[in-house]
Specification:
The chain is α+β, with helices and mostly antiparallel strands and 409 residues long. The chain has 13 helices and 20 strands. The model has no long low-confidence stretch (mean pLDDT 95).
Length: 409
């Protein structure tokens, strides 16, 4: 890959992704295979006056062996040194950069019960620390090609051709062509224009229908707003958590989801790709998982059993079916990209930042909104080329938000 493109991408991640501040520490999560790119990200962090940059290296091969050979107790263990590390992050609030390149089928063939039970035990412990950091620090998730990921997307190509094609797709969807910084400034303004229109409508309930069988509705409490693009920490630092991003999103009333909603794209979840599935909701909870393959149904049922909030919605996201990501014609088998190809929902944790004026509220006032809590947040894609979404507003109007899969406003 061209060195100039790699350096421009690294600069974009540091400046528009996490927006590293002078004197701030940075932690990067990345694969050992990605050192050729990570070194440029580290250098850009220091150019942005970071105090210290630490890389937490991971390896798909080692992770798979750990999941295979460790027992549940060992997998679930949150050691004292790890708790100390998490507490240090709570106290110092480093910026976090997550560079994704993993194999979508990483955990295929492994004991899903063991993995689920381990997450059920360790998740709440880790979440205690993460919640203390919520909305107080900058973070971003971005992607670069890994060999197995690239070959999953382009199975007929050689390794080198698959890697090149996936790089080309990432360059396009992450707006790296031309002036990336200016591209993202303009993109964030376009997203802001859309979610401002949504917020001005005062939406109460969204009604979804498409020919694949989706017939679903979900409500939004008064005082909740749509957001998208760049976000702001409680002390006013802007950052872009997802690169790429195309969504306008909010968190719904967790008790309001009713009906059935069908997936429109495969989903890589718990190290396994599942597809052709549906969830049936009643009074906010998933009461039935439907899937063509029994093994996919089992994975999804294990996922929603992780805690009570895993059965309920934490996010509603609107993305046009003609988004730049969908225009590539690719299935990325990676939620960061596929969720920004079309409309999606997410089960699990909701977003406090979708409460209007949340930054000036007390903890008690925020809790009063009773948003969904969970150790997971898993997006699944539901957008189709004929998806219709009608909004019912709090003043009794009905407005077509989406028609034929894309914006009608």
């Amino acid at each position: 890959m061209n060195k100039t493109i790699l350096k421009n991408y690294a600069k974009l991640i540091v400046k528009k992704g996490v927006n590293v501040q002078k004197g701030q520490d940075v932690i990067i999560n990345a694969s050992v295979d990605d050192n050729y790119f990570v070194k440029y990200v580290v250098e850009e962090c220091y150019k942005a006056k970071a105090r210290k940059v630490t890389v937490d290296w991971i390896s798909d091969d080692i992770s798979r062996l750990n999941y295979k050979y460790q027992n549940v107790k060992t997998l679930a263990e949150v050691t004292d040194w790890r708790k100390a590390k998490l507490q240090y992050e709570v106290d110092t609030l480093p910026a976090r950069i997550y560079i994704e390149s993993s194999d979508p089928d990483l955990l295929n063939g492994l004991d899903q019960d063991k993995i689920t039970n381990a997450r059920r035990i360790s998740g709440p412990i880790i979440m205690e620390y993460r919640e203390q950091m919520e909305n107080k620090y900058q973070w971003t998730i971005c992607g670069i090609p890994g060999v197995k990921w690239a070959q999953k997307v382009f199975p007929e190509d050689t390794k080198s051709n698959a890697m090149k094609k996936l790089w080309d797709a990432i360059i396009k969807t992450t707006r790296l062509e031309g002036n990336p910084i200016e591209n993202w400034d303009k993109h964030n303004e376009n997203i802001k224009e859309k979610y401002t229109k949504l917020n001005n409508l005062g939406i109460k309930t969204l009604y979804y229908k498409s020919s694949n069988g989706t017939d679903f509705n979900v409500s939004i409490k008064k005082g909740m707003i749509f957001e998208g693009g760049d976000e702001k920490t409680l002390n006013g630092i802007f950052y872009n958590p997802n690169m790429p991003t195309e969504e306008c999103f909010t968190s719904p009333d967790k008790y309001s989801a009713n009906g059935i909603v069908y997936s429109s794209k495969p989903l890589s979840v718990m190290g396994k790709v599942v597809d052709n599935f549906a969830f049936r909701f009643e009074n906010g909870k998933i009461i039935e998982v439907i899937a063509q393959k029994e093994e996919h149904k089992e994975v999804l049922e294990k996922l929603i059993s992780l805690d009570e909030g895993a059965k309920m919605l934490g996010e509603v996201a609107l993305v046009p079916y003609d988004s730049p990501i969908n225009q590539t014609g690719l299935l990325f088998y990676n939620t960061l990209y596929d969720e920004n190809a079309c409309c999606h929902l997410a089960i699990g944790r909701a977003f406090d930042e979708c409460i209007d004026n949340y930054q000036n509220m007390t903890e008690e006032e925020i809790k009063a909104f009773d948003l969904n809590k969970s150790i997971i947040h898993v997006d699944f894609m539901i957008g189709t080329k004929d998806l219709s979404i009608i909004a019912e507003t709090y003043d009794g109007k009905k407005v077509q938000i989406f028609k034929d899969g894309t914006w009608a406003i």
